[in-house]
């Protein structure tokens, strides 16, 4: 019944892509019920903007008030904490760094579940342990609300352009209501199964992403050492069987591509610390399911080393720079002997 009511209440019209905020009419804004948004970081901020761009009034909050300023200027209502968001909206999206943050935002003293309305739809786009998603779903169900996990892939660029991929876990009968909102922020919205399966898909994706980025960085570094021009090498890789997302869309070598973190001293993008966290989730689930992941384990170790060596806040593609520095240190030690 909740799904039927939500469907009739929320499906006021499918989102059309690429609508400029300046052209969203006041009438359109009034026709759509508010959407809550908690977590306005590198990913959450552009996601919330896209909801505004599609005519949804947004009620938002973030632990860092300065993160709310830009969204407020675009017309969002800013409140003090997640409980206030839940008091004013019955559809809420959360985008947070880690499992402890999600637990606090949902079940803490000022958490969403303190004031959540019965029948509310709660969509968590954070990347966290699948078991935590299941715990939050159970807690939400006790309050008469519906929780779905919907982690994303695509990075900041896709979040800004509204081309994210959402991997959704939860009750299938609620998927249509969730998809209405998610298609405003993403090009692909995929139903994965029950709560936690979205997280499972995301963890698997990010383990492969880390392995691929390390492989691309090692390959580019080797080619440069062999005298190849990095742009030429990237061109050859991208027309050959070694082609991958890390080589053709997010190349880790400075100067090879424009508009990626490697061209901006590895600022922005997806942080090394977050990649290390996601690889830790993959390791935990691999251990629990007795699944051998030797390359995933090595990738986890490498990104943990990077965090300890000052790379924590740089984009995860900075593994190329890390390898180069390791190489230079090794050469220096050889010369000193």
Automatic annotation (TrEMBL):
<dbReference type="InterPro" id="IPR002204">
    <property type="entry name" value="3-OH-isobutyrate_DH-rel_CS"/>
</dbReference>
<dbReference type="GO" id="GO:0006574">
    <property type="term" value="P:L-valine catabolic process"/>
</dbReference>
<protein>
    <recommendedName>
        <fullName>3-hydroxyisobutyrate dehydrogenase</fullName>
        <ecNumber>1.1.1.31</ecNumber>
    </recommendedName>
</protein>
<comment type="similarity">
    <text>Belongs to the HIBADH-related family. 3-hydroxyisobutyrate dehydrogenase subfamily.</text>
</comment>
<dbReference type="InterPro" id="IPR006115">
    <property type="entry name" value="6PGDH_NADP-bd"/>
</dbReference>
<keyword id="KW-0101">Branched-chain amino acid catabolism</keyword>
<dbReference type="GO" id="GO:0051287">
    <property type="term" value="F:NAD binding"/>
</dbReference>
<dbReference type="InterPro" id="IPR013328">
    <property type="entry name" value="6PGD_dom2"/>
</dbReference>
<dbReference type="InterPro" id="IPR008927">
    <property type="entry name" value="6-PGluconate_DH-like_C_sf"/>
</dbReference>
<dbReference type="GO" id="GO:0008442">
    <property type="term" value="F:3-hydroxyisobutyrate dehydrogenase activity"/>
</dbReference>
<feature type="active site">
    <location>
        <position position="202"/>
    </location>
</feature>
<keyword id="KW-0809">Transit peptide</keyword>
<dbReference type="InterPro" id="IPR036291">
    <property type="entry name" value="NAD(P)-bd_dom_sf"/>
</dbReference>
<keyword id="KW-0520">NAD</keyword>
<feature type="domain" description="6-phosphogluconate dehydrogenase NADP-binding">
    <location>
        <begin position="35"/>
        <end position="193"/>
    </location>
</feature>
<dbReference type="Pfam" id="PF03446">
    <property type="entry name" value="NAD_binding_2"/>
</dbReference>
<dbReference type="Pfam" id="PF14833">
    <property type="entry name" value="NAD_binding_11"/>
</dbReference>
<feature type="domain" description="3-hydroxyisobutyrate dehydrogenase-like NAD-binding">
    <location>
        <begin position="196"/>
        <end position="322"/>
    </location>
</feature>
<dbReference type="GO" id="GO:0005739">
    <property type="term" value="C:mitochondrion"/>
</dbReference>
<dbReference type="InterPro" id="IPR015815">
    <property type="entry name" value="HIBADH-related"/>
</dbReference>
<dbReference type="GO" id="GO:0050661">
    <property type="term" value="F:NADP binding"/>
</dbReference>
<keyword id="KW-0560">Oxidoreductase</keyword>
<keyword id="KW-0496">Mitochondrion</keyword>
<dbReference type="InterPro" id="IPR029154">
    <property type="entry name" value="HIBADH-like_NADP-bd"/>
</dbReference>
<dbReference type="InterPro" id="IPR011548">
    <property type="entry name" value="HIBADH"/>
</dbReference>
<comment type="pathway">
    <text>Amino-acid degradation; L-valine degradation.</text>
</comment>
